[in-house]
Specification:
Length: 248
């Protein structure tokens, strides 16, 4: 809508009329609001699904390879009886990488978006594994399954550790660049260990306190090594607007 003001005469000079324009957004009706809301919801779900797809391979194969021993870290054990290959699997090694991947994704997309996608990825993992168990059930023996206590505590601990790592990273970013990736990884692994070892092994007679101590030494070393990788990756993984600078 346009409105004009009459010209005024000051002495021999005249002032041209001012023309102003005002624009009004048309109010959306209920159908248009519903369509817009549905479109935003669908876009958000597709984004979460895409991010979940990045994490899904590590989540899925981490669970599927829990029966394969991992001897990579045996040098960290003071005695042969405490070697990680006796209580750590290839699957757990893959889930360790999942924590580091979560931190890199949090750098790019933020803790909120990555946390939702992580939960979606775990839901997809659980669904796929359930379908595999149903399909293979006639050929499986009782010994082919880990105990319900073990698998429940393991999954809960890694979900919690993954989310905690992303959250700690998000809180500590913005200072010295190395602090966020180190503390995110170290605290994520530590939180996972505090849930997993007592939850899975307390009361079984296993030396789980020693195992947890060795595990924390291993994961602290991994966290330090991750800082060396994270530094160069800052140039490649640029945070979205509002999540920090390229070199944070």
């Amino acid at each position: 809508m346009a409105a004009s003001k009459p010209s005024k005469r000051l002495g021999s000079e005249s002032i041209e009329p001012m023309v102003t324009e005002r624009f009004y957004d048309r109010e959306l009706n209920s159908r248009e609001r519903a369509v817009r809301g549905l479109r935003a919801t669908l876009q958000g779900f597709l984004k979460a699904l895409a991010l979940a797809g990045i994490m899904l391979p590590l989540q899925l194969f981490g669970i599927l390879t829990l029966d394969l021993p991992l001897s990579l870290f045996d040098a960290f054990a003071p005695t042969q009886g405490l070697r990680p290959s006796a209580w750590m699997s290839l699957g757990e090694g893959l889930l360790m990488l999942l924590v580091l991947l979560t931190i890199l994704m949090t750098r790019r997309w933020g803790a909120g978006a990555v946390a939702g996608s992580a939960l979606l990825g775990w839901a997809l993992t659980f669904s796929i594994i359930t379908m595999l168990i149903v399909e293979l059930a006639p050929e499986l023996q009782d010994g082919d399954f880990p105990s319900g206590r073990f698998i429940s505590v393991l999954i809960i601990s890694w979900v919690a550790g993954q989310l905690f790592a992303g959250r700690v990273f998000d809180i500590t970013r913005g200072g010295n660049w190395w602090k966020a990736p180190f503390f995110g990884a170290a605290f994520g692994y530590g939180f996972q260990a505090l849930i997993y070892f007592p939850g899975a092994f307390a009361g079984t007679g296993a030396p789980w306190l020693w195992w947890m101590l060795i595990y924390l030494v291993i994961t602290t070393a991994i966290s330090l090594a991750f800082v060396l990788i994270y530094g160069p990756l800052r140039r490649l993984i640029v945070p979205k607007a509002g999540l920090g600078g390229r070199f944070d």
